């Protein structure tokens, strides 16, 4: 069966009274994503993507304040071989300051070859630029599929759809068979994931020590066990002032490792300003997720961030989320007991990853933090 073109779908919808649910279903039914709209030559942003002006407002950006607001950049050169205790402590202090004040930082000299980073981005681009008949074979909204392609995981719950498509691959602890991965990026996804898992262990060691705990504390809690890789594709947008590539949100995990291309558009909310996260070729963006803020009892910050829509591109990025994504889990997480005292009582109730993910997915990217639901009064 041939899917209808996106132009046919939206021409039909705009000829009658607007019905948002019908538009969403029609868009989802094409299995072609936002890329399908661009392929069919759409010249205006469909209504389902349009955000209220306050959501896309650029007046709160940090333009002109670049010297005042700079995302921390941390050099991890030789971190696995450092025997100089003073240099390791210096790095830990840099990580501690970045995660407590920003929730975001970038790392360079992290050990992943730049050739693999470049090929990972190219692989994402290759997948999303296949003919729609090929990429639609992976289209699904089944939360339990290890490999799936779709546009907007929260398409039917978010206030407005975002201008992006995504390929998600659960790589750990239950990884897909290599044959289940799209052939156009199969090898690099497997290779890149192995490198990110190793980097994750290093980062969780540094974060543990930054909390004053043993270096293996967060790893022993299972924070580094799960990895969900998402290859995002942001096509050029004909009216970027009307929508977003990714709405304001904080991440639903312990830690996120982001590889972004040179186009830019990622911003973090800091002291009331949207701060650009400038692309660094060979660098990686690291940000704390909600679950790290929860277990650290607010010592670490899960900052809200967004991605702007642009009229250039496509923009590609790869987000690797450390969490047991969409897999049943009974492990309970709450504020780490060693961080709790009479002077610093627990700020959150205990929860399981399954409960947390269910709440996050139900509410979607509505601009509100999922952590509020778990905060003690």
List how many beta strands DSSP finds.
14
Described by strand count, sense and barrel closure, the largest sheet is:
8 strands, mixed
Q: SSE string, helix = H, strand = E?
A: HHHHEHEHHEEHHEEEEEEHEEEEH
Identify low-pLDDT runs. none
CATH class: Mainly Beta
- Stated plainly, the CATH topology is called Jelly Rolls
Number of helices: 11
Explain this structure to me?
The chain has helices at residues 6-14, 20-30, 33-39, 53-56, 85-101, 114-128, 132-135, 186-210, 217-220, 290-295, 353-363, and strands spanning 73-75, 104-108, 147-150, 165-172, 227-234, 244-249, 255-260, 266-270, 273-276, 284-288, 305-308, 315-322, 332-333, 351-352. The protein starts with 5 loop residues before the first helix and ends in a 14-residue tail after the last helix. 30% of the residues lie in helices and 19% in strands. The protein has a single domain (53-374), classed as B-lactam Antibiotic, Isopenicillin N Synthase, Chain (Jelly Rolls), CATH 2.60.120.330. Helix 1 runs antiparallel to helix 2 (20-30), helix 5 (85-101) crosses helix 8 and helix 6 (114-128) packs across helix 8. The protein has 11 helices and 14 strands. An 8-stranded mixed sheet has the order 1-2-10-7-12-5-4-3. A 4-stranded antiparallel sheet has the order 6-11-8-9, with no helix packed on it. A two-stranded antiparallel sheet has the order 13-14. Helix 5 links the parallel strand 1 (73-75) and strand 2. The model has no long low-confidence stretch (mean pLDDT 92). With 377 residues, the chain is of the alpha+beta class.
């Amino acid at each position: 069966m041939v899917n209808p073109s996106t132009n046919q779908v939206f021409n039909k919808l705009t000829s009658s009274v607007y019905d948002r649910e019908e538009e969403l279903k029609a868009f989802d039914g094409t299995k072609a994503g936002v890329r399908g709209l661009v392929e069919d030559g759409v010249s205006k942003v469909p209504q389902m993507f349009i955000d209220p002006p306050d959501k896309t407002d650029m007046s709160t950006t940090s333009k002109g304040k670049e010297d005042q607001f700079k995302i921390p950049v941390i050099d991890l050169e030789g971190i696995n071989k450092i025997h100089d205790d003073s240099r390791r402590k210096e790095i830990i202090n840099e990580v501690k300051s970045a995660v407590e004040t920003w929730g975001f930082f970038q790392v360079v000299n992290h050990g992943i070859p730049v050739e693999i980073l470049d090929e990972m981005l190219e692989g994402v681009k290759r997948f999303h630029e296949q003919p729609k008949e090929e990429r639609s074979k992976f289209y699904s909204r089944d939360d339990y599929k290890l490999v799936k392609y779709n546009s907007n995981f929260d398409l039917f719950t978010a206030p407005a759809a975002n201008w992006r498509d995504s390929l998600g691959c659960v790589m750990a602890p239950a990884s897909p068979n290599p044959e289940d991965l799209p052939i156009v990026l199969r090898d690099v996804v497997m290779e890149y994931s192995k490198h990110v898992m190793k980097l994750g262990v290093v980062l969780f060691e540094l974060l543990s020590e930054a909390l004053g705990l043993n270096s293996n504390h967060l790893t022993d809690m299972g924070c580094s066990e799960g990895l969900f890789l998402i290859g995002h594709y942001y096509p050029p947008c004909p009216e970027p002032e009307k929508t977003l590539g990714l709405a304001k949100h904080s991440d639903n995990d312990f830690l996120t490792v982001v590889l972004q291309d040179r186009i830019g558009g990622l911003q973090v909310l800091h002291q009331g300003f949207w701060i650009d996260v400038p692309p660094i070729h060979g660098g990686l963006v690291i940000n704390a997720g909600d679950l790290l803020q929860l277990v650290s009892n607010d010592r670490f910050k899960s900052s809200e961030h967004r991605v702007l829509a642009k009229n250039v591109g496509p923009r590609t990025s790869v987000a690797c989320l450390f969490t047991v994504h969409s897999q049943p889990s009974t492990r309970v997480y709450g504020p780490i007991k060693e961080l709790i005292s009479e002077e610093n009582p627990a700020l959150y109730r205990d929860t399981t990853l399954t409960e947390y993910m269910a709440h996050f997915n139900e509410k979607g990217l509505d601009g509100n933090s999922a952590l509020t639901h778990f905060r003690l009064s």
